[in-house]
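Example 9 (inverse folding). The structure is encoded as follows.
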């Protein structure tokens, strides 16, 4: 990418998009195009096409998506498939129609079958049934991969797709109703630490600074609300047995990989898509112990076995991305500490 090229980052305020923006700025790219959801509804084809016709981006990072953890995916199933299908189809088609040189589409490792062999290689796509709790999201992400592939085949575009593992980092979603496991655990242990040390004023400050979810409104008894979520001064309750394995990648490492691929490789080298991960995994129980350590909570961890575990294991084979000269740089504990520091630095309100 030329430093003066017009680069559009869809979803620039999200976890991935904000990391890509940071990395582009560090790389000297100055002509960055962004639009908030209030300025541009990516689910509306006419609005997206008007934006592309007006701005004519040379390069597009498709990082916009409706995302969430097991609870959100399993509760808002129609929204997850509709929003993600329409966002992807509108942006990919507009990138083709208005002559973008290249597009990078960000997917998710949930595209793989629930019981795929481990570690998961790119060729395992569509070889088995998906995990039911996030099937709508996965179907939309698979459709976006296929859109890029078939536009390349029919129209000669240079659209590439990447499949990152579970991501975390500055700018993550800490709403406990919709958050992924990493930010949810960080926030739960942080709140439990505040309760454990009697710092109730800081609990109120936290609840006013970040959305809690589950219909919480200011004035509601925070102890009752948090207790219902398994967060008390004595313990933190986590979903399921804690036995499933998950792989995690720091968001800035993903941004480095995306820009490396955008600058150096096209679909003829990448193929249909390429995995991006850390290459190692931990159990959810181990992740919880690390979150407890990083936040400094002194209480216990209990398991709510009435809640689902999800897929038993999701570890990506990252041989292909490594062959392109990229390696992850941020260890799990280091990345979690950076994420927690970002969380603590955010002002209330």
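The amino acid assigned to each position is listed next.
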């Amino acid at each position: 990418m030329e430093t003066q090229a017009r680069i559009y980052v869809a979803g620039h305020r999200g976890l991935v998009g904000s990391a890509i923006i940071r990395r582009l700025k560090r790389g000297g790219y100055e002509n960055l195009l962004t639009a908030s959801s209030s300025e541009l509804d990516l689910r509306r084809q006419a609005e997206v096409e008007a934006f592309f016709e007006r701005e004519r981006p040379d390069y597009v990072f498709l990082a916009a998506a409706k995302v969430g953890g097991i609870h959100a995916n399993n509760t808002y199933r129609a929204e997850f498939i509709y929003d993600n299908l329409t966002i992807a189809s509108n942006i990919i088609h507009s990138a083709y129609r208005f002559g973008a040189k290249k597009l990078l589409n960000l997917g998710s490792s949930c595209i793989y079958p629930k019981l795929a062999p481990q570690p998961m290689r790119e060729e395992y796509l569509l070889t088995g049934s998906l995990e039911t709790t996030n099937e709508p999201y996965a179907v939309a992400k698979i459709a976006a991969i296929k859109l890029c592939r078939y536009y390349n085949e029919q129209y000669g575009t240079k659209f590439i797709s990447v499949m990152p593992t579970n991501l975390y980092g500055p700018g993550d979603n800490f709403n406990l109703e919709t958050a992924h496991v990493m930010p949810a655990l960080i926030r739960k242990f942080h709140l439990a630490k505040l309760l454990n040390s009697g710092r109730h004023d800081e609990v109120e400050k936290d609840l006013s600074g970040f959305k809690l979810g589950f219909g919480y409104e200011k004035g509601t008894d925070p102890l009752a609300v948090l207790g219902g979520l398994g967060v008390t001064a004595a313990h933190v309750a986590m979903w399921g047995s804690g036995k499933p394995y998950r792989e995690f990648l720091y968001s800035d490492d993903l941004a480095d990989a995306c820009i490396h691929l955008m600058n150096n490789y096209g679909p003829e080298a990448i193929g249909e898509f390429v995995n991006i991960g850390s290459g190692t995994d931990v159990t959810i129980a181990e992740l919880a112990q690390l979150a407890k350590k990083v936040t400094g909570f002194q209480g216990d961890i209990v398991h709510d076995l009435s809640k689902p575990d999800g897929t038993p294991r999701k570890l990506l084979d990252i041989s292909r991305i490594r062959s392109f000269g990229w390696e992850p740089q941020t260890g799990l504990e280091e990345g979690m500490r950076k994420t927690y520091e970002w969380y603590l630095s955010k002002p209330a309100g």
